[in-house]
Amino acid sequence: MTNIERHNYDVVVIGAGGAGLRAAIEARLAGKKTAIISKSLFGKAHTVMAEGGAAAAMGNANSNDNWMVHFRDTMRGGKFLNNFRMAELHAKEAPDRIWELETYGALFDRTADGRISQRNFGGHEYPRLAHVGDRTGLELIRTLQQKIVSLQQEDYAATGSYESRIRVFAETTITELFVEGGRIAGAFGYYRESGEFVLFEAPAIVLATGGVGKSYKVTSNSWEYTGDGHALAMRAGATLINMEFLQFHPTGMVWPPSVKGILVTESVRGDGGVLRNSEGKRFMFDYVPDVFRKQYAETEEEADRWYTDPDNNRRPPELLPRDEVARAINSEVKAGRGTPAGGIYLDIASRRPAEFILKRLPSMYHQFKELADVDITKQPMEIGPTCHYVMGGVEVDPDTAAAAVPGLFAAGEVSGGMHGSNRLGGNSLSDLLVFGKRAGEYAARCADETTKRVKVPAATLNAAVENALAPLGRGEGGENPYTVHGELQQVMNDLVGIIRRRSELEESLGRLADLKERIKKVGVGGGRRYNPGWHLALDLRNMLAVSECTAKAALEREESRGGHTREDFPQMDPDWRRVNLVCSLQGEDVRLERKALPTMRSELMRLFDRAELAKYLTDEELADFDAAAEGVAASGGSASNSAAVGGADKGDV
Amino acid sequence: MGEQRNFRVWRGDDNGGQLEDFQVEVNDGEVVLDIIHRLQATQAPDLAVRWNCKAGKCGSCSMEINGKPRLGCMTRMSTFAPEETVTVTPLRTFPVIRDLVTDVSFNYQKARELPAFAPPADVAPGEYRMQQIDVERSQEFRKCIECFLCQNVCHVIRDHEDNKQAFSGPRFFIRAAELDMHPLDTRTDRKDAAVEEQGIGYCNITKCCTEVCPEHIKITDNAIIPMKERAVDRRYDPIAWLGSKIFRREQLDKPAGYATAGVATAPRPNAGTADTPVEQAAAHGAQGDISANWHREAAAGHAAPVGPDGKLPVTEFTGQLAGAQSPFGDDVEFPMPATDINYQHPNRPDEH
Predict the structure, then answer these.
(1) Which prosthetic group or cofactor does it need (chain B) (predicted)?
(2) Residue from A322, A351, A445, A518 carrying the catalytic annotation
(3) How far apart are CA A79 and CA A74, in angstroms?
(4) What value does the mean pLDDT take over residues B83-98?
């Protein structure tokens, strides 16, 4: 019998990024014995990659900013598919969560009067992002990491042990959650370092495992982003929503490999960069949709004049909205006019003098010089769509972050609903603080309320051990996990990428079904000690499960909205706005259900202009809105409803 | 477009190991970590390596490439000659777990021993006011990605296992400096702690840590030297000392021995243990003709000249040694012959 290390905790947090650490801090502050499971070393989580900042309506840069404006921006960004209550809580609580970080030792950039400086960002009406240069994510993770260390120091003073109340299990991967008697009982996994198994028995588990980007060939995400939390939740009986919505950036580097996936800022195009295919043709002129025809130049000469004389010339077509640019790139590559690496060329070198590029795009220049030895003043960049963030995730109660399975919670990128169909820049860092705290708080409460703790039966545990050891048992004779992973990434990239169509999505489901069978035959050589081949083999089934969710939901949703673009259904459809696609697991297969979106409270609805709502809502919903507005007017209610909104609670949804 | 290149990667675990030769395809624009990944995918599926962001932001893929401590994701293949064999070995200062993965828990222990940020009791969240110019000094140190290359290259612990207990290393000197310079940190004993608890006195300012820092933090100039200088100022300026006795009440309950030379006459511990650098160098199993000399005969490491309380003497005047210990042994003459040094300057790869 395999030796299994056993631990008992009140709250186990899976994931050590921003959401996980914030949840763990809250659980420990509530007096709970807390474990943090980190797939990497402590402090290396993907949160460090966030550059822009954390959005919070503190009103430091513009005193007109408040939570209602932030709420409005978030709903707009998500094309009204967001869970309104999550967006509301997020907008209300983000400032407190940011200020709290200062008491943990964070050092944000400052305004002239010494407060936290806030910067402008796409989609935010006012300057709102608290930031530290371009390394805000690092500041966040380090601050939370150091807060945890300080709590450990307090525990050391009180008990003589740093780890008596909060312990970090670094380089530990969870492969199973256990559900006994309809509620969470524990989690099972292995130490990467030794390959030894470990069981955590706990009445409350918080998932904070981040996203799913590693299912894609071109991604800005790290190896950890294999959708573990998504898949664990589904296997435990919880549900996922919005899995069709992935955020792609149209211009990520695809070559050289050292910078694959890294974003190229849109200002390269704004400052004169143009897109060319492998034949050297500036192809964007062929892709101007009729609705934009009037605003965009028809000849290269006119487009080139725009940069210096925008009043008398129309814009170059390279500056079309993101999805149009992505669609054009996608078409060129699929027509065989792409670069060897599967992208197209973004050329500013031949169009602007080196001094101009250095002055206007210094950080782009340095990034590529240092990381890739690419001199963007001398050569074109090879770019293509890169997978960046998944809006979809575990369906949770907005107030408590609780998933459908009692005892299971989710926060951060692994949870769904907050961002709707598209996330605004800066909202992810504030999201993980706000809902990380809530998840920790309610997980602690859940641990309190669970009087009888269930044991994990030996047979269940043995099955988990067997599953985990299977790839090693098959040895090198099995399918190579790296090969299967590469093929999965190729399928998702080609068929479930940034622009989708029915035929390709249907094909992807067939290919995924094949891969599912092959994953069962994956084998690796070597032993259990720090064996990355084995680790990948175990991650594969998670990646496949979330890929299946994305493909199925993308096929089902016959409209284009935010991070889901269907070539065959290019319009946004108000009827689809009222629907969430909910994924669950039935046996091994993903089952899709439609579920109505919660209806936004009327006082929140009234924060928007009717003209804006008309873009998103059905006629029926608009009629309700009008009736409610009349009611307010009749009862003498003022148009400014901040007091009513502020005092509103969940009960009146 | 790819060409075959020679790679030599250390494989093994805490029981020992050796350099293994690989022929591997290298394409334009790749970095060392890309090649390690290709080795995993095609020839050595169980080759252990740490990595995360692949963009120089997380500090996971620290390794020694041709003897130089580097991040694998930031070392471009184009910096090597096509016929050059690229040798990749694990960080030398930390125990090997497997292949390129080392046990860096030393750093997490040291992090715990350093007193945390002490927020002002009377300032509510949201009321913190600091000027940009005042936070910038600390912000420089908060750029640290904890790759631990500075810890790895630091002579005080690189070849001197027994120094690890009393010495926190450059990573935590910048953390101490960061808190010391934090406009709202309420502790006033950061510099004293750097000397008494962290062993900053061991540092002999060779600036190797600064040279390897991928974030280009001026570790030595901006953190270590100011921490050392201020510690000295406060201790040995009699007026400042008197002032500190009168005004800084929080220090009254310091343990006896604070700012006294209690360890000055303690005999110096015997030098050398079984865990000598020679053996460590041998364990790293250099084979063949690579640019770094893995076979060098390094002098045995000296134990730190700590007193019975495990602390360093507070000043070199009361210690037995003028200046800090040499990481090469105290009886070595400088300059050392170039062939005896297994460190290469990162910006001058042609020189040993």
Answers:
(1) [3Fe-4S] cluster; [4Fe-4S] cluster; [2Fe-2S] cluster
(2) A322
(3) 9
(4) 95
Strands A589-596, A197-201: pairing kind: unpaired
Let me know if B127 is exposed, middle or buried by CB neighbors in 10 A (0-12, 13-18, 19+): exposed
Average model confidence (pLDDT) across chain A: 91
Question: Tokens 């869970």 identify what position?
Answer: A83
Q: Which of B53 and A524 is assigned the larger pLDDT?
A: A524
Residue A194 lies in a domain: no
In this complex, is the C-beta atom of A10 within 8 Å of any C-beta atom belonging to chain B?
A: no
Give residues 169 to 188 of A whose Cβ lies within 8 Å of B.
170
Q: How many helices (H) and strands (E) does chain B have?
A: 11, 7
Predicted local distance difference test score (pLDDT) of residue A413 = 97
Q: A146, exposed or middle or buried, with CB in 10 Å at 0-12, 13-18, 19+?
A: buried
Last residue of a domain, one of A388, A409, A437: A388
Q: Between the CA of residue A560 and those of A79, A599, A621, B103, what are the distances in Å?
A: 10, 21, 20, 49
Among residues A239, A237, A328, A337, the alpha carbon closest in space to that of A288 is found at A328
Asked whether A420 and A242 are in contact (CB, 8 A), the reply is: yes
Token code pair at residue A418: 């907050």
B-facing residues of A in 23-52 (CB < 8 A) are 40-46, 48-49
pLDDT band at B24 (very low <50, low <70, confident <90, very high): very high
**Assigned domain for A446 exists:** no
- Kindly indicate whether the domain formed by B3-101 is annotated with CATH number 3.40.630.30: no
Out of A363, A388, A413, a domain closes at: A388
The domains of chain B are located at 3-101, 105-236, 238-339
- The whole model's pTM is what? 0.83
- Beta strands A197-201 and A4-8, pairing class: parallel
Q: Which of A216-225, B27-36, B82-91, B325-334 has the lowest mean pLDDT?
A: B325-334
pLDDT confidence of A274, banded at 50, 70, 90? very high
Question: Residue A18 annotated as binding?
Answer: yes
As beta bridge partners, residue B18 has: B11
Whether residue B232 has pLDDT greater than 80: no
Closest CA to A537 of A226, A303, A160: A226
Shortest alpha-carbon distance between residue B147 and chain A (Å)? 9
Q: Which residues contact A497 (CB under 8 A, 6 or more apart)?
A: A216, A248, A330, A385
Q: What is the mean pLDDT of residues B124-140?
A: 95
Residue A353 lies in a domain: yes
Q: Which CATH number fits domain B105-236: 1.10.1840.10, 1.25.40.10, 1.10.1060.10, 3.40.50.620?
A: 1.10.1060.10
Residue A441 lies in a domain: no
Least Cα separation, residue A171 to chain B (angstroms)? 10
- Whether the per-residue pLDDT at A643 is higher than 80: the answer is no
Decide if pLDDT at B255 tops 50: no
Q: Are A195 and A534 in contact (CB under 8 A)?
A: yes
Inter-helix orientation angle B170-181/B132-142, to 10°? 160
CATH number at residue A261: 3.90.700.10
Number of domains in chain A: 2
Mean pLDDT is lowest, of A201-210, A247-256, A548-557, for A247-256
Domain span at residue A325? 247-388
% of chain A with per-residue pLDDT over 90: 74
Q: Which residue of B98, B122, B174, B197 to mutate against A (max A Cβ within 10 Å)?
A: B98
- The beta strand positions in A324-416, using DSSP E, are 344-347, 381-390, 393-395, 408-410, 415-416
